[in-house]
Specification:
Elements: E1 15-19, H1 24-35, E2 39-44, H2 48-60, E3 64-69, H3 75-89, E4 94-97, H4 115-142, E5 146-151, H5 164-167, H6 170-190, E6 194-201, H7 208-212, H8 216-225, H9 234-245, E7 256-259
Parallel strand pairs: 1-2, 1-4, 2-3, 4-5, 5-6, 6-7
Helix pairs in contact: 1-2, 1-9, 3-4, 4-6
């Protein structure tokens, strides 16, 4: 199989589209693609400043990138985003669906679930990813190849139902489980030209206490339950995404790769 192997420039001449790139994980992924030669389309919903900082870092390092506003729950916004990327770069080789919702309403026990909040969660995480895939596929097919990477999550593990990091709430699990189904079925639907895989990250370092109101003792408990005794680094997630999008992963399709320090027992 012809391809570009890990020479540090695996994505030269290719275009990588990253949604949610104003966030911690999406931003790290976008920076990784820029570092390895891709032209990066940085999608953000409201974090314009953060997204523009990602673009600036890529450009300062000699790469190519542009930031575009995107609401994955709005079909017109999705179409506009895809059309802008196509007009600017003329192709899409990689789509990373990193846009997602994590609100305090999504971290409650199931008895306290808000159906409205759950609907918004599913609309962003699941339908939003479907919209992006559906819009990007025709452009990928023009060049006869493409790679899609979705974001699922770990779930069904943990020991403390009152700790949303160490238990993973039900509605969030339902959304991320749907991403698994989307990934495995879409991979069969689009093969062999387009590969589709997903990541299932465990807890990743971030502003858990400040942004989501997670108690310090819950953070410490979650770290203590992980065999690695820490949270993941966003760059570790980015490196996995880059591999799945690369030619070196050309025989990996329809898989959900766990990146969580052994938090979930294999088998």
């Amino acid at each position: 199989m012809d391809g570009t192997w890990n020479d540090g420039h695996r994505f030269s001449g290719r275009v990588a589209m990253v949604t949610g790139a104003g966030g911690t994980l999406g931003g790290a992924v976008a920076l990784g693609f820029g570092r390895e030669g891709a032209s990066v389309v940085v999608g953000y919903r409201s974090s314009r400043g953060e997204a523009e900082s990602v673009v600036a870092a890529i450009v300062d390092a000699g790469g190519t990138a542009s930031a575009h506003q995107l609401d994955v729950t709005d079909q017109a916004s999705v179409v506009r985003f895809i059309d802008e990327a196509d007009a600017t770069y003329g192709r899409i080789d990689v789509l990373v669906n990193a846009a997602g919702r994590l609100d305090e309403a999504d971290t409650v026990r199931f008895e306290h679930m808000s159906a409205d909040a759950a609907t918004v969660l599913l609309t962003v995480d699941v339908v939003g990813a479907m919209r992006m895939c559906h819009a990007a596929i025709p452009i990928m097919r023009r060049h006869g190849r493409g790679a899609i990477i979705n974001f699922s999550s770990t779930y069904g593990n943990g020991v403390n139902p009152d700790n949303p990091i160490n238990w993973v709430p039900v509605t969030y699990c339902a959304a991320k489980g749907a991403i698994r189904g989307l990934t495995t079925s879409l991979a069969r639907d689009l093969a062999p030209e387009i590969r589709v895989n997903a990541l299932a990250p465990g807890p990743i370092s971030g502003n858990w206490e400040q942004e989501w109101g997670i108690a310090p003792e819950h953070i410490a408990e979650a770290k203590g339950m992980n065999p690695m005794k820490r949270f993941g680094d966003p760059r570790e997630i980015a490196e996995t995404v880059l591999f799945l999008a690369s030619d070196g992963a050309g025989y990996i399709n329809g898989q959900v790769i766990h990146v969580e320090g052994g938090w979930v027992t294999a088998g």
